[in-house]
């Protein structure tokens, strides 16, 4: 006798439609549409999703690139226009497709505030109509060539991220000028020279690139610059709160940062690029953006609460630069130091007394969280950790991340030192497999009395 199968009741079916729509909004469009066959109740949920993600790489199995636009238009036609606030297009190099789709969604969906565009093949030259982005609050562009500004009237834009977007100084300056309310700006890998041919006319070929970064947006709060090669960086934003500089190639003397309210600063460079004399290291930034060697009107480190830098504690020049910053920071709560892997970095004869001077008050009275990555157990590194344990009076957590298990085991010797902080009960010691990997082995050592 065959017994009828019972329907399996799951907790997800008890969720309200509004919450289910939010969950479906996180899925790529192919999976979102497939959700309609789960049960009758789910049939139309994707049509009210607040976010749609049209990824050509996922859709090309069933449709050719020529049908991409047709399929997208068909799906958008079934969607309830009042609900869509975010849309993502990952597409091929068909210019007319992306321009028409962007124009379509911007005109149809009046509540659309977030748009993400990415060309998955070659760099695509785009010439959007003026003011097409004027109603957006967030825009992300990846893998395009911009020769003319399409950002007229973008006073509402709060977030702008451009990755591998190639343009000249005039275009970039025009974009930043038009985005007068910009609060977060990210520019990633967008300064390599690019040969541009307009309107498929060989005679119009021109080599373009961004050479100078001049950022003056008064409302800007977060600035991220990554993998850029420029002749000059000039940032003058009084209300800037977060600054990230990663893999930046620029003459140190051409770096100018005017930021009175900076709260968080992040600086790093890839292992294979640190040997490049042109790339900005943390010590270069400290020397040129503080009054370490000469008086400067603005010291960007003074009001930091978070500092994350790549710096070799074993080199006297870099250790001196760090000690000056620690003296300058009046409110530092979180300190993260990554020690680069370099041969011969154990040289230098500065005294470990450097960390014990009474003037470094941010460690003694302010610092709560400290992380050291790439710890090798060399004398100068050990002296630095000893100072944390013995002098930081309110520190709550110390994380020491090593590249070798033996070194991690030797760290336990440091933990027998008397602690200045009553809040420090555990030190986290970790071992990683590679220079950029996460923890592969972690242990928390109880340091309570």
UniProtKB/TrEMBL annotation:
Domain of life, per lineage: Eukaryota
Database matches in SMART domains: FBOX
Record Gene3D superfamilies: Ribonuclease Inhibitor (3.80.10.10)
Matches recorded under Pfam families: F-box, FBD
Domain F-box: 9-59
Protein name: F-box domain-containing protein
Species of the source: Crotalaria pallida
